[in-house]
Amino acid sequence: MTTTIGRYLSDDHGRCDELFVALEQLTAEGELSAAGKAFEAFRSALEHHFAQEEEVLFPTFEQASGSTHGPTQVMRYEHQQIRTLLATMGDALARGDAEETLGVADTLLILMQQHNAKEEQILYPMSDRLLPAATVVDRMTRLVAA
To answer: What is the pLDDT of residues 66-76, one digit of tens each?
Structure first.
């Protein structure tokens, strides 16, 4: 049975969230070397998730809806905000600054929660109504992780 677009991507949000929690915990415990590895795993998972959306879902949604100025435009903008925070967080972690890393993590968590809620409550349901789930999920699944 094919999953919905919303279920597939929401499950991936959960996977990314688990990696983020591990990163925060290691940083809070002062395990900065392990936190650095956890950061790379989280960043890689998040970039793969973004690629699935930006390379497959968003263009497919825009073509079917006839609009590039709707929710996908907002989501792309927020992806850039998240990437900026990731860069700041990675720099702080590389310097061994656990306090700054955790401060950026707090901001990142709020942004990700708001972003994911918009996707899960607005964009994904619209996508499930508008697009062929099996085709879109198959195309997203084929993207190789970064």
So the answer is: 998 889 999 99
